[in-house]
């Protein structure tokens, strides 16, 4: 019966497509004058998934010093501080945290495990060539962890990069950084690139006068060396990356670890070394066929302290993915199949508790794509992974793209995702406060969700200029979720979801270029994220997710003069109210006011860029109107008392920031 229903659905789609095509042919029988104009926005109309491509041009609209700052002009991703002490940043997509977003660097899993704590800060913006942002579940070829979306970062390639590239940045809050990139082609086949980054936060800022540093001091060094060898039949890339970071935060008078029993202090040192290799076998006579092998290793070490509480973490990881693709009869029927392998070994110590585990996850997958050119594309994928601790996990995924008409595109997606929780690394911000950490019941570290989405894209002309409207809706339903419960003022409780947990996200985005070299973007996003929380008595209480704004509006204006000698960018964001969890000890909640909502607020960022022959100068401002959250740290005057809490962050911590820098290139 279900096969008959599927055939009927596809038959209906094809009949509708034929009617649209016939009408289009009849209307376009006569030759008409046409003009080629730029298509605004960053949406990829050819992709099967709802994909947004952020190019160098897009990233250049803001300071974009690292990956966490790359989404200033993006409507789908929100970035915020995890707490008011460590400087750790987190992203949100479809109303859920970045833990549910699979973040890859050139299709290699990157920000996961222990790296998830500060990983968004580690990737320099100048290294980034482009960012592919997809909502919902993605191809099974890339793994099982994309539960609400995926981010794939493409770095600059040694064979196409500038011979030398220099970027410097400094701001009014005492941050400085310098990036250098060099590339050399030995011949038509072999090339190499060296990328270096150094950044420092040197100024001790306390703009709100609470006695704590608004931003932690840090020194970060990051070096990447990559190679590429390419022929008609082979493409091989390999390289290594080393990173070291030293952070220090807490009370403004805190200077060294020796003082932390009398003065509240935070410190973190991270060493990370990664290697990667990508080998592709090409078939010039069969361009539709290919074989690829992706390999990577990582060794991560972090030593931190939060006042008198110590944390030590070690991780060794290995990843491999073997992919083969070909066709069935013709290119309208393509398929991919392969096998993956993941090994994660963790050793963590927090205060007097030790946690160690080794995860081994081999997996196999297959994906079939049926294409009717310029009409319909259907992708059906299946994968099975064998986790040594969590058992066998099956992941089905379906994606459909229907070109209803030349100016109408409909995309549908449905699929399952799962992940293994890293309780400490993913919740490091909660170690800052003095709440007790409590584990409730029999904890299941497995998280499983189903995600369903629909995206409508309408391309249009307003006058003689291009515009597009994109409307999407996504639903994420959890069957297993790890709950982080802050509803008790004296503790943070961790337990497996006892009931319903879901996220609903709706977004509309309009892009328009009303005249040459001017781009306008306006977007509205609605999010409803709720879960059943466990009360002290054992009853269930359904609440909206804390610290999440239900409504968000973004407007971006960009204009460039001829030859882009001058470029102007302005971004305005409005964030709606959000619920604050219980904090009776800090006198935030009272018996007469059990629910507290953080106020709505706006931020404005602007940037001006002046381009010269080989270099450019940029000057910008963030948080132009100086909005900050009042008292982001509760009981800041008594940091060793039970009511001290630096994790109740819902808005900007620092005020207006002015920055400037230069970019210099030798092609």
From TrEMBL:
Cited Gene3D superfamilies: TonB-dependent receptor, beta-barrel domain (2.40.170.20), TonB-dependent receptor, plug domain (2.170.130.10)
Keyword tRNA-binding in record: no
Pfam families: Plug, TonB_dep_Rec_b-barrel
Protein keywords: Cell outer membrane, Membrane, Receptor, Signal, TonB box, Transmembrane, Transmembrane beta strand, Transport
Keyword set includes Transmembrane: yes
Membrane topology: Multi-pass membrane protein
SUPFAM superfamilies named among the record's database cross-references: Porins
InterPro entries: Beta-barrel_TonB, Beta-barrel_TonB_sf, Plug_dom, Plug_dom_sf, TonB-dep_rcpt-like
Coiled-coil spans in chain: none
Domain annotation TonB-dependent receptor-like beta-barrel: ranges: 199-624
TonB-dependent receptor plug domain segment(s): 50-149
Subcellular location: Cell outer membrane
Similarity section: Belongs to the TonB-dependent receptor family.
Protein name in UniProt: TonB-dependent receptor
Native source species: Aquirufa esocilacus
